From TrEMBL:
Belongs to the IF-3 family. IF-3 binds to the 30S ribosomal subunit and shifts the equilibrium between 70S ribosomes and their 50S and 30S subunits in favor of the free subunits, thus enhancing the availability of 30S subunits on which protein synthesis initiation begins. InterPro entries: T_IF-3_C_sf, T_IF-3_N_sf, Translation_initiation_fac3_CS, Translation_initiation_fac_3, Translation_initiation_fac_3_C, Translation_initiation_fac_3_N. Keywords: Cytoplasm, Initiation factor, Protein biosynthesis. Residues 85-169 form the Translation initiation factor 3 C-terminal domain. This is Translation initiation factor IF-3. PROSITE patterns: IF3. GO terms for molecular function: translation initiation factor activity. Its main location: cytoplasm. The gene is infC. Monomer. Residues 8-77 form the Translation initiation factor 3 N-terminal domain. It comes from the Bacteria. Gene3D superfamilies: Translation initiation factor 3 (IF-3), C-terminal domain (3.30.110.10), Translation initiation factor 3 (IF-3), N-terminal domain (3.10.20.80).
């Protein structure tokens, strides 16, 4: 709600509102003039919390404090979100088995850290005529990794590159 400003006090255009007091109790449908008077007597603001309802729902609250609480909730929600990065590992179709195992170990580390991994095989010159070798390399990586991941995008050609995207399995 922080991106969309709520209407307060005299900004509310409706003639009647459904009023909720500061304790959260419903006072029913009230004329706007009476609601504004009640807000002034209590030293609070009349805030339109549900403008789309018929009639709009208004609450008697301290608007400054309400805005502060909403911002605090948003910051907490943002903290709990996990940023996933897309890491990329590049190789060639004529990769040696040891190098393949070494790079697969790096892929596994990235996946364990919670990142997505794009594994790319780069074809040069005549290698483009034998893209099945690159596909075999990618399938060998899937085989070496085991079960701790999901193939988000299967191996596919993009120009001179064949790539696939792997992501860690959700912990749910």
């Amino acid at each position: 709600m922080a991106t969309k400003e709520l209407r307060t006090n005299e900004q509310i255009r409706s003639k009647q509102v459904r009023l909720i007091d500061q304790n959260g109790e419903q006072l029913g449908v009230v004329d706007i003039d009476r609601a504004l008077t009640m807000a002034q007597e209590a030293g609070l603001d009349l805030v339109e919390v549900a403008p789309d309802a018929k009639p709009p729902v208004c609450k008697l609250i301290n608007y400054g404090r309400y805005k502060f609480e909403q911002e605090k909730k948003q910051k907490e929600a943002k903290k709990k979100q996990k940023q996933t990065k897309l890491k990329e590992i590049r190789m060639q179709p004529k990769i040696d088995t040891h190098d393949l195992q070494f790079k697969t170990k790096h892929v596994k580390e990235f996946l364990d850290a919670g990142n997505k991994v794009k594994v790319t095989v780069r074809f040069r010159g005549r290698e483009l005529a034998h893209t099945e070798i690159g596909r075999n390399v990618l399938e060998k990586i899937i085989e070496l990794l085991g079960d701790g991941y999901t193939v988000e995008r299967a191996p596919s050609m993009e120009g001179r590159f064949m790539s696939m995207v792997l992501s860690p399995k959700s912990k749910k």
